[in-house]
Design goal:
Layout (H helix, E strand, L loop, with lengths): L3 E6 L2 E6 L10 H15 L6 E6 L10 H6 L7 H14 L4 E5 L3 E2 L1 H8 L2 E5 L3 E3 L13 H4 L5 H10 L3 E2 H7 L4 E3 L4 H13 L3 H12 L6 H17 L1 H12 L8
Parallel strand pairs: 2-3, 3-4, 4-6, 5-7, 6-9
Antiparallel strand pairs: 1-2, 7-8
Length: about 250
């Protein structure tokens, strides 16, 4: 059964979680299919931007608790496989946009945190429900905590309270919250902007956004200068500069 559907048009590949019967719970099957699909799209030049979307009224209810409860000693839990998915998304070289049209809970917030841009319906709801299950939001912290305002993280992690899309935008979990009828238009607008970036430059910029350094400002500036020079001297960099000077679109725009 295909629990992750894929469609590509005009440089945008949409990965759709398609398991509405269980509220798009992050089961082992769904997570492995998501991993496989992400792996295939890395080398697909027609996939310039990836949108993570969903069918049904719920973005995702989080890891599959039914499967988790039925696991035997030694089985790999869905939460452990989710860690693999979050690592791939965090390191993914192409821009990832999350489209959230309904509730998201627990592990699903890790997917949202791993996306570069996240757009939600203002009426969508969110919650870190782990503490209310007697567990902790461990795996998702890798992608969520870099996004959240610290005070909000403490409040919402510890209380497990539900919050809406407007609050999600205020605290940094999502990029923006819009009315339901504006959701797809807003996502399309971000995708149109992202496609205008050079593929190698976008991948390099994502590395900058993910990097941490503790070896001093001089070493950091030397590294940054080296990176900058490498991109300016690349074929893509030369084409981008030439296009700007000639007031035309660069050749990577579909």
């Amino acid at each position: 059964m295909d629990l992750v559907r894929t469609a590509t048009a005009a440089g945008v590949t949409t990965l759709t979680l398609d398991s509405p019967a269980n509220r798009n719970a992050l089961s082992t099957t769904l997570l492995k299919q998501l991993l496989d699909t992400l792996g295939r799209t890395v080398g697909d030049q027609s996939a310039r931007v990836v949108v993570l979307s969903h069918t049904g009224p719920v973005f995702s209810s989080g890891v599959d608790l039914k499967e988790t409860a039925a696991a035997r000693p030694g089985d790999r839990l869905p939460a452990e496989i989710l860690a693999d998915v979050l690592a791939v998304l965090w390191e993914y070289p192409k821009p990832v946009v999350a489209r959230i049209a309904g509730p998201a809970r627990a592990g699903a917030l890790g997917l949202i945190g791993a996306a570069d841009i996240a757009v939600c319906d203002r009426a969508a709801t969110f919650a870190f429900t782990e503490v209310r299950l007697g567990v902790i939001p461990a795996v998702i912290s890798a992608t969520v905590l870099p996004r959240l305002a610290p005070r909000a993280a403490a409040e919402l992690y510890l209380t497990g309270d539900v919050f809406d899309g407007t609050r999600a935008a205020e605290i940094g979990l999502v990029t923006t919250a819009v009315e339901a009828q504006e959701l797809d238009t807003t996502v399309a607008g971000f995708c149109a902007s992202l496609i205008r970036g050079g593929p190698l430059a976008l991948a390099g910029t994502k590395q900058l956004l993910r990097r941490t350094r503790n070896d001093g400002i001089r070493a950091e500036l030397a590294d940054l200068a080296h990176r900058s020079a490498g991109y300016f001297q690349s074929a893509e960099g030369r084409e981008g500069v030439a296009a700007a000077r000639q007031k035309r679109d660069p050749d990577w725009i579909p």
